[in-house]
Each structure stands twice: as structure tokens, then as C-alpha cells.
Amino acid sequence: MSMEAATVAPRLQISTWVDSDKVARRLRTRSAASFSPRLKDRNMTQVLLPHLPTSKVSNRQRHVALEVSCSYNNFPASTVESGNFHTLDESLVLKNKALAIEPYLNGRCIYLVGMMGSGKTTVGKIMAQALSYSFIDSDSLVEHDVGGTSVAEIFKLYGEGFFRDKETEALRKLSLMHRLVVSTGGGAVVRPVNWKCMKKGISVWLDVPLEALAQRIAAVGTGSRPLLHHGSGDAYRKTYMRLTSLFEERGDSYANANARVSLENIAAKLGYRDVSNLTPTAIVIEALEQIESYLKEEHRHAHITF
Ligand SMILES: Nc1ncnc2c1ncn2[C@@H]1O[C@H](COP(=O)(O)OP(=O)(O)OP(=O)(O)O)[C@@H](O)[C@H]1O
Ligand SMILES: O=C(O)C1=C[C@@H](O)[C@@H](O)[C@H](O)C1
Q: From which residue to which does any coiled coil extend (predicted)?
């Protein structure tokens, strides 16, 4: 196994590569036995994996899954990742939502857009898992293209213009692909040419209040986010001010997305006062609902006869 595959493989879930009947027999779980045949046919093995001791998943299986997934999508292994684990209930809801949109989605990619820290990566990995898509981060693709240089270093060494060109190039490549959930860079929405690429798939805006974004980002630091390096004062305030001015420039561009997922709306629906109580899974479920509404509307329009 190459070094690259060896470092990435442990993060992969190999759900589609494990025979669900065999796993069910071995684990003898009630949950496995109660799947309907239709669900079982649809790779419900994903639900079983959280119960599967990691020792039962051989490195060989992980490696094969990674290699096939990457060669199918034609991307370097280091830029492709998979999703997280959930409870059985959450997995079933996610899978059912995914099955509802599958016929309308027809393999088209999903592009997640939104401000830095809005959860595109976190949400994207879970969504990809639910849809049996691959997850890819366009920032990672750019970093790979520039010989493994980090986004922060690319900004420092070559400037933002160079990064934006590379980002457009990455989105062009991605627009030729299918069955990907793409986490786009926070600023990808400002170039109309990027929208041309993203409109080949379905775009989804993760709309998160700026206060929540500033809290999340201040908690982890701004080291990897070059556009937030400026300003003085305490970390939260500085980040909040900078995010506010970026959002003033970009708000209308985010609104170009086909679907909007508002964390404030989800919190209101679920009776929470604060968006910080929302789990990433709850956000993915809402995102799949919004995607479904958009796709059904699109389908309805396509079938109106004049
Ligand atoms: N629903 C959530 N609740 C609380 N924290 C979250 C949630 N979703 C993501 N986070 C946290 O917020 C931070 C940013 O999340 P993530 O990297 O997914 O965002 P992003 O949109 O991909 O960011 P960027 O565009 O800057 O790469 C991470 O520390 C992550 O753990
Ligand atoms: O909001 C932005 O402009 C950026 C977001 C990040 O994802 C990176 O693409 C880069 O740091 C720029």
C-alpha cells in the first residue's frame, strides 16, 4: 500500500464493500435483521458499520474501497474522503431522504456553498455518506494541485488571485464529474464562471448566523483562514467584524444557490433558541429536504406542457 493510501484509508468507511448479509449474520443484531429487502439492496450496510469492530474491516478492504472510489471519480486519493457515523435512527432517516431524492438527482453533484466555518465539510461528509456519493473539498484539490501547499501558504506565496484561478480550475474539473458532494471554498461564489460549473449540479447554501460562525472560528483559531488574519482585538470580535464585511460583499452571491439551509429556521422548527444546539446530522436532514423541494419543483417545471 502506498504511503498516501495508508494515511487516508483509516478515515474511509467501506460500507458499500461489505456484504450486508454476511455482516448481519456475524453480528446477529436485531437492527440488521429488521431491514426490509429493498433497503438492504440499497447498501444499508452503512448502518451496520458503527457496530462493526474496526478489526473486522481489513486494511485490504479499506484500500480497495479507496482505490476504486478514487479511480471512479478520477481524483487523487488524498483529496477524497467519506462521512461520519450515526445512530441507527439517524441513519435510517438520512437514507430514506436520500432515496427520496435519488431519482430526481440522477447522479448530479451537490455543491455546498457558504461562509468560512459554515460546516460545508462537516455536513458534506455526512451527506455524501447518505447519498452513497464521494465527498471532496475543493480547497484540498487546490492544495493538491499546488504540490501539497496549504491554502494559507498559497495566499502568502502567490496571492489571492492565483488561488482564485486555481479554485476555478478545480471547479471546472469537478463539474465534469458525477456523484460528488463538493465542499467549495467560502469565496467561490463571487466569480460568475464558478457558478457556470456549479450549476451543472445542485448548489446548497449553508446559511449560518455570523455570531455562530465567529464563535466556531475563534474556538479553533484563524491560522488556516488567510482572509481572517487581519485586524486587532479579541479573537471573537475580530473574526466577527471581518466575517460581517465579507458577508456584505457575498450575501447576494450565496443566495444564487438552488437551495438554502437556514440554521435559524431549523432551530425554530425544532424549538431551540440557539443554533449551536443543532447537530450536523439535523442540518443534513434539513438540507436533503430543501434539495428534495428544489428537485421536485424543477421536475414539475420540466413537465409543464405549453
Ligand atoms: N453544526 C455544528 N455545530 C457546531 N460546530 C460545528 C457544526 N458544524 C461544523 N462545526 C465546527 O465548525 C468548524 C468549521 O466547520 P467546517 O470545517 O465543516 O466548515 P467549512 O464550511 O468547511 O469551513 P471552511 O470553508 O473554512 O473550510 C469546525 O471546527 C467544525 O467542527
Ligand atoms: O471565504 C474565503 O474567501 C475562503 C474560504 C476558504 O474555504 C478558502 O477557500 C480560502 O481561505 C478563502
A: none
